[in-house]
Amino acid sequence: MNRCAWVNEEEIYKEYHDHEWGVPVYDDQKLFEMLILEGAQAGLSWITILKRRENYRAAFDQFIVEKVATYDEDKIQELLHNEGIIRNKLKVRGTVKNAKAFMEIQEEFGSFSSYIWGFTQDTPIINDWKSIEEVPAETELSKKISKDMKKRGFTFVGPVIIYSFLQAVGLVNDHTTDCFRHPDLSEKAQQ
Length: 191
Fold this sequence. Notes:
It contains 11 helices and 2 strands; from the N terminus they run ααααααααβααβα. The protein has 191 residues and is an all-alpha fold.
């Protein structure tokens, strides 16, 4: 079974690639989780975050956005002492700030899903990259979304982070054409 070149032999990585990465996500709670985890990854490798994912879920109330938005200074200090997550002050405080901005989008658009999928007219973008070297780190779309989200008060949403997010939640299918997941996800997107 051929996978994208970025996948190593660790079971957690293969599992994530095979069943999650690039699969369209419409559930707001899952979208919030992935947005926060992609921001937490900034400056680190994805495997570092993936191995701490369950710790993040426990620390951030399973990413229930309404709960995260209410975190006070005591809760923030508790998180900053939690060895199971990346204890970066800006990232932890940014998560609370992003929860509030996320809820404002839900209020305006009915759901964050409606907002984010609106950028692609509710259709995944299917790319046909032959190798990992062809896959961009950012695109015009990720720059546009990043700019809009920053304007709405989000943090840790630069164009590279946003492009990783779009790939992760299936707005973009960047499985390389030699990967077994590419045709399956491409076919589903065209239905």
